[in-house]
Amino acid sequence: MKEILIEEIKKALAEVGAEPTREILIEKPNDEKFGDASSNVAMTLAKELKKNPRQIAQELVSKFKFNPEQIERVDVAGAGFINFYFSKSLLQQSVAQILAQGEQFGKSNVGVGKKAIVEYVSANPTGPLTVGRGRGAVLGDCIANLLEAQGYSVTREYYFNNAGRQMRLLADSVRLRYLERCGKSISFPDDYYQGDYIKDIAEKIFAQKGNTLEGETDLSFFKEFAEAEIFASIKRTLLRLGIQHDSFFNEKSLYEKVQGGKSRNEQVIDMLEQKGFIERKDGAVWFKTSLLGKKKVEDGKEIPVDTVLVKSNGEPSYRLPDIAYHITKYTRGFDLIVNVFGADHIDEYPDVMRALDVLGYDTSRIKVAINQFVTTTINGEQVKMSTRKGNADTLDALIDEVGADATRFFFVMRAKETHLNFDLELAKKQSSDNPVFYLQYAHARICGIIRVAEEKATLNAEAISPDFVKVLNAKEELDLAKELMRFPDAVSYAANSLEPQKMIMYLNGVAERFHKFYQECRIVGEEEPVMKSRLLLALATRQVLRNGFKMLGICAPERM
RNA sequence: GUGCCUGUAGCUCAGUUGGAUAGAGCAACAGCCUUCUAAGCUGUGGGUCACUGGUUCGACUCCAGUCAGGCACGCCA
Q1: Which nucleotide's C1' sits nearest to the alpha carbon of A298?
Q2: Residue A364 to residues A128, A330, A337: CA-CA distances in angstroms?
Q3: Residue A550: per-residue pLDDT
Q4: Is strand B in 7 Å reach of the CB of A76?
Q5: pLDDT value of residue A2
Q6: Residues 429-468 of A with CB under 7 A from strand B
Q7: Which of residues 284-313 of A touch strand B (CB under 7 A)?
Q8: Distance (Å) from CA A371 to C1' B72?
Q9: Residue A468: how many CB atoms within 10 A of its CB?
């Protein structure tokens, strides 16, 4: 529908002899008396054409040739808004169209033939997922769903590192707990992993091996055992939320030699060196980010800053594999690269972008979704989340308390850049305060109506002729149809901005319109044509809710 | 100290390249169930859009500064 309006505006502009300098925007006015769709195109052109915006709008409107079956009338209002009013038959037909398209309704083909990669979670296997991680996990998953709905072929990737200092620390933490379990007295350092899960892993080792590993000083067994346990637990937690990755990318592979005898890490250094961005000093290899404008300010003076890629002990810093990893996203042929990560990783990303940029990669393909932290409060008191300290609020515990649907919903119902305050006490309450119930209730209600209607009127709702949509007439019916019609726009809007919460906002509107319709319009017991037309509308509403729920990854319950 | 994010109703938050009378849920108050699920619907009250200045026909939106909170600032990952 939007396309039709934009097309017609473009045609009219051409006739008037004006060029649309900016994208033509169609909005839904916030007051229904201003029509069903609105454009401010006349006002944006006022300055260039040196004309009164109202006059421009009038001229455009006089050129419009709309099908009266679709657009009833067009007005000019306010400072120069062009307001469109949809005709009844358009709304009626849209209901039939939704039912015909079924699960496909809301999908778009803008991404067909394009490959997208969404990297999310990417937590190293050092402990259970925290509540804070859950936000990025759900956000990333919803973004992947939305992109799929846009037609992209989407790869969901988890990038992880099972080497390095943190893993050694983890392994030794497990070893010490194991010795403790064997009855040895140990001293457990403060900077080791404190969580109870370490003891659980040690317990498992003890159950399998008894005290045969007491004298073991090599950490590799402990490391591998702990890693396998923790990874399994992470995957289990994610699965509870319906999250499954297609690909697990091990950072270690970037250290391994590929054809030509060099690792991908080394290749990055070679390429940067060719471009003149490498400097070797103090025994380390530096990326000359200072040449690219990186600086810090100290005592009012600006100091250019370079970045270490290989430490003086010969080990790469994490930035080097990060760059190499991103290059693989290009070489693997992804057209759209989405990275989802928490605010704590905000500093590494400009370095990666700088490197990709100087190496000639098109960084406009990369979209970054940075989610702010989740602060959890218990009894009004803030709890800091840290895996190492062991007082972490685990994502698993949260799912136990509030269920998978509410967990997913809570994490994406707010804009990602807000600091989400997750009140555990409130979330535990399984009451009607819970906003996810409002949506799901609408779905359950529809299912209930259809059940009763099929029983009492002995009919098959799915088999009702779509011709009955022509009976739809009441304001509440047409308002609901109008809202349903907007679904495809809502999906692409949410997908383009990587903001699943816009989907929730939209679905809330649908539920609201449905509840109003329900209040005013009875279905069962009405005359047959009216009943059938309303059943069609209810079915279309159910379809939109289902399609939307699927993108959010929440259930569509038949009863509540 | 520097960078990024945030500040909108009592609370949690929406607010579409700057546009029409700043919205929703919860909480409060008042109504609506002999009829398809009242986890719903209707209505009322509630605002210095953190503060100050600037840009312009027009600013919650853009710019500058101030205040408050979060995060990050390592040859840790």
Answers
A1: B1
A2: 34, 12, 9
A3: 94
A4: no
A5: 78
A6: 432-435, 437-438, 441, 444-445, 447-449, 451-453
A7: 284, 296-298, 308, 311-313
A8: 13
A9: 21
How many alpha carbons fall within 13 Å on the CB side of residue A305?
Answer: 11
A378: confidence class by pLDDT, cuts 50, 70, 90: low
Report the nucleotide nearest the CA of residue A318, measured to C1'.
B77
Interval A187-209 mean pLDDT: 91
Q: Which is nearest to A130 in space by CA: A495, A472, A390, A309?
A: A390
Angle between helix A528-552 and A475-485 (nearest 10): 30
Q: By three-state DSSP, how is residue A255 classified?
A: coil
CA–C1' span, A445 to B37, in Å?
A: 6
Strand B close residues, chain A 528-557, CB < 7 angstroms: none
Of A110, A96, A147, A111, the C-alpha closest to A543 is A96
Q: What is the DSSP letter of A315?
A: P
Q: What is the 3-state secondary structure (H, E, C) of A76-114?
A: EECCCEEEEEECHHHHHHHHHHHHHHHHHCCCCCCCCCC
Q: Where are the beta strands (DSSP E) in A323-397?
A: 336-342, 366-371, 374-378, 381-383
Assess: ipTM above 0.90: yes
- Which amino acid makes up residue A439? L
Distance in Å from B22's C1' to A35's CA comes to 19
Distance CA A299 to C1' B3 in A: 15
Range name among A20-24, A337-341, A464-468, A512-516 with the lowest pLDDT average: A20-24
d(CA A211, CA A137): 38
Residue A245 in tokens: 């990755």
For A10-21, give one letter per residue: b (16+ CB within 10 A) or e.
Answer: eebbeeeebeee
Give the whole-angstrom CA distance, residue A536 versus residue A532: 6
> Token pair of A211, please?
């005290």
pLDDT of residue A21: 67
- Give CA–CA dist A281/A241, Å, rounded: 48
State chain A's maximal CA–CA distance in angstroms.
Answer: 90
Estimate in Å the CA A432 to C1' B26 gap, whole number. 10
Secondary structure (DSSP) of A414-431: S-TTS-EEEEHHHHH--S
Give φ, ψ of A271 to 5 degrees.
Answer: -65, -40
Please tell me the distance from the alpha carbon of residue A58 to that of residue A533, in angstroms, as a whole number.
38
Which residue in A439, A462, A445, A401 sits closest to A553, CA to CA? A439
This prediction's pTM? 0.93
Q: How far apart are alpha carbons A469 and A530 in whole angstroms? A: 9
A166/A171 Cα distance (integer angstroms) = 9
Nucleotide B39: closest residue by CA–C1'? A432
Looking up tokens 């819970």 gives: A434
